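Lab meeting minutes (informal)
Scribe: AK
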Amino acid sequence: MNKIIYLDAAASYPKPGTVIEAEVDFLQNKYANAGRGVCARAGAVDVMVDGVRECVADFIGAKKNNIVFTSGTTAAMNMIARMLNLDAGKTVAVSDLDHHSARLPFVQTGARIVLCPLDDNYNIDSKNIPYADVVVITAMSNVIGMPQDVAAIVGCAKLKNPNVITVVDAAQFVVHSEIDVEKWGCDFLCFSGHKIGADTGVGVMYIKNPDNYKPVFFGGGMVNKIVGGDIIYNSAPDVFEAGTLPLTQIAGLKNAIADIKKNRPDLNLIKFMYDELSKIEKIKILSGRDSALLTFVVDGMHALDFGALIGTRGVCVRVGKMCASWIHQIMGVPGSIRISVGAYNSKDEVKTVIGYIKEIIK
C-alpha cells in the first residue's frame, strides 16, 4: 500500500482489486443508466443492479424487495427517521455506543430520547431495554468493537412494546460477522459499502415490511405513471430509490461482498497488539482483548498529537472521538486512538507499529 501501514479499516476498508476491476469494466465497457432505457446496454445495467440486489439480500438473509440502495449508513438512518413520522409524542431508545449518524437523525425529529443501559463492559444490557416506540441498536461500536446481542435486544424491546420498530446500525458489525435479519427480527438495518471494501457512495437499507412505509425522496424512477392528478408510485424497492442510483459503486459491491466473505480481518492481530501494548505502563486500553479493534489512550499525550507523530512514520490510524462522542464521555476521555485491521494486514506490520508506538511514548 505505497509503503503505508494502513490500520484504519474501521473508517474505510481499502478496495480489493476485484472491486476496482469491476468498476473500471463497467465504466469503460458497460456504462448506461438504469431503469430508463430500452437498448441492450441499458437492459444489461438493469440486470446487473438486480443481480447485486439479490447478492446483498443473500448476504444478510433477506429477500430482494427488502433491499434499498442508498448512499450510505448516514443517508439510510436519516431516511428511516423521516419514514417513521416521529414527533414529540414518540419515544426513541438509543445507546451511548451510537455513532452520531445513528442517533442524530432521530434527535432531529423532536421525539423523546431515552437511553438503553450499558453494563460494566459497555455492552447494551439486553435484559433492560426501556419501553419505546423505536429502538436504535448499534450492532458494534466503532470505539469498543464488541458485537452486541441484537436478537436479544430486539426480543426484549418487543416484550416491552409489541409494536416497537427496531433499527440496526450494522456499519461496523458487517465487516466481521454474518448477519441474518430473519434471526435478528429487526425492522430496519443499514450499512455502508465502503466498510466492506466497496466504493464510497453506496449503502444498503433493509426494510422488513417495505409496503408499510412511504418514501421520503421524490423524483425520477419511483413513479409508475401519472394519470391526471393521480400519481401512482412503483412498488418497493424502486419507490425508495428516486433519482439515478450510484451505478458504478453498485457494480463493485457484489465483488466486495464476495471478498469480505472469504477474507475477514484477522482479529488475532488485534489480540497480539493488545497483549503487547498492555505491557506499556503509559497506555490505557479501552477496548477488550476479544474486540474487533483496539482503542487506547496514552497518559500525558493528546490523541491528536499521537496521530500526527505516528503518521510521520507512515502509519494510518484513527484518532479523536470517532464520531462517537457519547461513549468517550462515559469513559471519561476527550478522545482516543483506534487501530483496526483488514485481511491485507500482516503480523510483521503490526510488530513494526508496536515498535513505533514504543518510540513515540518513550
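Next up, CB showed the second protein from the same session:
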Amino acid sequence: MGAHKDKNGTWYAQFRFTNWKVEPDRKTKRGFATKREALDWECDFLTQSSGNLEMTFEAFYELYKKNMKGNLSEWESQWYILSCNSTAAPRFWGAA
C-alpha cells in the first residue's frame, strides 16, 4: 500500500497486485487531494479486482453499473439504474 505526495502538492496511489491472469502488475493513479482519498481508492480497486465475495453490496452495485454501461445503450443503462435504485437499493441499504 502506498500513497505518495507529488511535487505539485497532490497525492497519488501506487501499488503492486496480482491481476486476473495471476501475473504481477502495477497500478498508479494521480491527482488526489488528500492521502486518505488515495488510500481509499487503492482499497476499492483491490477489492473490486480481487473478485472477493466479501465486498459490500454498494461496492458490488457500483462495479455492476460501471460494467453494465459498456454493454447497453444509454437509455437501457439508465432504465436499469433507475429500476435498481427503486427496488433493490432500499432493501439493501435503506436509500432510494
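CB comment: The chain is about 50% helix and 20% strand.
No objections, moving on.
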